[in-house]
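Batch 3, record 17
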Amino acid sequence: MKHARVVFQDVIHQAIETNDGHLKLDNGQIVSEEEVVWLPPVQPRTVFALGLNYADHAKELAFQAPTEPLVFLKGPNTFIGHRGQTYRPAEATNMHYECELAVIIGRSGTNIKQEDAYDYVAGYTVANDYAIRDYLENYYRPNLKVKNRDTCTPIGPWLVDAKDIKDPMNLTLRTYVNGKVTQEGTTKDMIFSIPQLIAYLSSFMTLNKNDIILTGTPEGLVDTKVGDEVITEIEGVGRLVNTIISEKQFLRTESENAIFSQ
Amino acid sequence: MSKAIIKFSETLHTKEVEVDPQSNTIILGDRNVTLEQSSLEAPISGTVYGALLNYRGELEALGSSLTKEPYKEPPKAPVLYIKPVNTITGFKSSIPLPEDTSQLQVGASLGIVIGKKATRVTEEKALDHVLGYTIVNDVSIPHESFYRPAVKQKARDNFCPVGPWIIERDAISDPNKLTITVFVNDVLKQKNTTANLIRPVSRLISEISEFMTLYEGDVLLVGVPENPPLVKEGDLVRIEIDGIGYLENPVK
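Prediction for the assembled complex:
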């Protein structure tokens, strides 16, 4: 089943997808995709992200593949939902998307073995982990000013139940900018697989229900401009639509966005 | 006597109380109640962000390495990290010593608790967004390099004691003039002051909120002074901050 969190008529609802592509809200109402505001499918709390977790992307950025997962954390401020708007800072010269498979943890665990790891997964969604490379510095790299900006991590639309994804390590990822494919890869090429990441993280800290792991992105990153429609898509998981707006547009609509970024 | 927000473990909500920061006691009518008689939890609810290399002495200690590989140049923007929710714990609770290390580093920090959502606030208005101040021990496994995020060194369970309470903002006349002292087993190990911050409180809030929103309940650690004390199993760590009180936790 596919689950979403949406706002309909000013109320936050849980929703599921109906057979004909509508949403059924938790109060029984049936609504269309365009009638709702999409929120991240779970409320983000502890969110891990992986850098350089695809062999080809590590090569593209001229780094050696890491011997230990390169993990960083993201705050709740950065997340927005499906069909949201991400602002490009006026001074930015290099802002790229990153299509990533997001793993949603289903129950808490410590020292989880690789062979048990999938028992701890509630489901999957799609994330677009934008980076503004202009702000890269070599302290706790990738630093928060690159990776944890307001509106810079669209996630959704759906949380797809783990049991509905037969092999999460064999899914095609694609990014479309204004309808044209600019990034294509497969989760097969992850350096550290989902079970390895769960085992690694839980070896030194407790993973909790609704923790999210963004598992990294393959090669094919291009600069995105104001007005671009960026769609990150993962086979069987979903198609996440996002639009780039200018900083000026963002500041004008800030109060509207802020209601939903919480 | 100051107003403070405290979280007793027997209730779901926080409570406003009168406290005496000097003696670390709660004032109930005409009695002073010591914290030994109470079971406290961390008084905070949001995301905890920390600022690295925000003390002058810390940056000076790194000296010429700041211009060499892998850093190449001194930091420009605030260097930030997150202490995730599994790390947060309260007054008197134990800091676990993981099996893969024999020592831990004490990170004595002033914690700024946000009271009102802060997006792109100016330095002049920054303190309007502050609810109050607390004491935070940003525990880490000692590590030399600041090149990659130190999640494995900083995000262990219970590696972020917070408390004993949040002192209301107006009880602190200047958050950039607070003495911070660390005692290990009652022996003075570190003394510094927030006067040595590279980015004082208001500037830090302003520069961070320029690109990321701080929400009500979030906590911003202003930084950890140079030469952080090391502790081992069985030690008792006490961090004192002027006008706030002290935070005490054993290492087990």
